[in-house]
Amino acid sequence: MEEQNILEVCTPVLSRHATTDPHVPSICTNDQRYLHTSPEFPMKRLLAAHAQDSQTQPDLYQIAPVFRAGESGRYHNPEFSLLEWYRVNMDHNALMTDTQSLLKHIWQAFDLHWPGVQVRRYGVEVFERLKCWPENASVSMIKTYFKDANKSFPTSIGNDLDAALDLFMDEFVINEFPSGTFVLLKDYPSSQAALSRLGVDEDGRSIAERFEVYFGAIELGNGFHELSDSRLQQQRFEDDLQKREQMGEPAMPMDTYLLEALAEGLPDCAGIAIGLNRLHMVIGNHDSIDQVISFTDQRA
Amino acid sequence: MANYSTNEFKGGLKIMLDGDPHSIVSNEFVKPGKGQAFTRTRVRNLKTGRVVERTFKSGESVESADVMDTSMQYLYSDGEYWHFMNPESFEQLAADKTAVGDAHLWLMDEAVCEVTLYNGQPLAVTPPNFVEMVIKETDPGLRGDTATGGTKPAYMESGAVVKVPLFIEEGEKIKIDTRSGEYVSRVK
Predict the structure, then answer these.
(1) Is the pLDDT of residue A210 over 70?
(2) Does the residue A298 lie in any domain?
(3) What is the pLDDT of residue B146?
(4) Helix segments in chain B, DSSP class H
(5) Could you give the ipTM of this predicted complex?
(6) CATH of the domain at A192
(7) Which of chain A's residues have a Cβ under 8 Å away from the Cβ of B53?
């Protein structure tokens, strides 16, 4: 990070606001504050503040403990470490190259054989199997695919196409990623944009400008060409809150400070968060996260 | 009836699926960084013994199965049913052939068995891990041959056939591991 002139920052773990993402559960404290699920919002506020005040626009990084309520398992612990960084004047494609060079640097530092990186496209992966682009797929089509493969498909998915796609990707695409190799999966369906910009892929199809990093079937990180339009951001927060209501999940206070900062102007940038514990698992060839955490949730 | 949420899932938990009681064998939390979380489980149907994979949306709740394991004493068989008694309440229950399965080979008077009850009725019977039985019939022993490691079949009163070392005689009492059906030792 120092070599690349990326500035280390430290932002609050405790906040008045929380992510509205319906699938990212925050831990609420007894005085109505929230433990952050990622340092994304305050880091973007710092990027926006620098854009106003200084001539040189620094890139930023942070290593922070983050919290997700109830996420426990072989690859999950409710408290874990994120390495998150932002690159000004980069889009998701440039950030993919940047991520690759950091990983290569780490692999060399640990004297590990560099396995190389494969780039896959979400839509193409779906099309190869379903003969249909993800945005045109239906839950019943995916359900039939599971049935034909003799795999369990929960009826509780109902009409939620994105949930059906999530399970489809996990079962049939990600689980088939070659082991021991990095895969960058990019160009997500627009309906799964999260905090990324919408754009078009090399074939002109509408996509979300985001990617995920995998080592074999283990997800390591999530990268976005960051959405900078304050009104669009507010719209997504509101859509999230509506979805939360439908799902019976609690409403979350949207980060109005972030919206103000975006209105002031966020520079064109791309950002990524990497789960450091999972990276440690991969480097040390461990098969569960409790082997790289001193005391997991059950014993903390 | 109580319900369990997927975040309470753990090995051994008894749940109802498709109208049958199941026991969770293993479960794994699956979640993309930005997306729906799932719980992928392997469950054993307690009626058929079949193990299948079943995936749930995280947070979904599933009805618990009224299944419990109790220690019961084996009393006798009337040819059709095997009768057991709760040693504390003296309550008696009859288990049929499906519930008893292969366990009947190891049932001896007063043996304390694990009886799995579903809605109060026996669903499965697990015999004690070790039982001691007298050999009803086997080929004559080869005296002094205690080292060669050869075996021969020995027939028990219950119908069980156990491979025993060559030096074991008819009428002797032996200790058997019921989980593998293997001879453990001679009982003096």
Answers:
(1) yes
(2) no
(3) 59
(4) 97-100
(5) 0.89
(6) 3.30.930.10
(7) 151-152
Residue A72, chain B, CB below 8 Å: the answer is: yes
Tell me how close the Cα of B73 comes to any Cα of chain A, in angstroms: 38
pLDDT at B1 (0 to 100): 67
Report the 10 Å Cβ neighbour count for A48: 21
Q: How much is the pLDDT for B132? A: 93
Q: Do B36 and A71 touch (CB under 8 A)?
A: no
Lowest mean pLDDT among A80-94, B85-99, B131-145: B131-145
Tell me which residue of A71, A65, A19 sits closest to A44, measured CA to CA: A19
Query: Which positions 31-60 of B are in contact with A (Cβ < 8 Å)?
Result: 31-38, 40, 52-57, 60
Range of the structural domain that residue A239 is part of: 7-292
Q: Are the Cβ atoms of A192 and B35 closer than 8 angstroms?
A: yes
Determine phi and psi for A62, rounding to 5 degrees.
-155, 145
> Is the residue at A247 inside a domain?
yes
Nearest CA distance, A155 vs chain B (angstrom)? 8
Domain contains A83:
yes
Task: Give every strand in the sheet of B182-187, ordered side by side.
Answer: B161-165, B151-156, B130-138, B173-177, B182-187
pLDDT in tens, B24-57: 999 999 998 789 999 999 999 998 889 999 999 9
Name which of A76, A212, A219 is nearest B29 (Cβ-Cβ): A76
Does any domain span residue A2?
no
Mean pLDDT, chain A, as a whole number?
A: 96
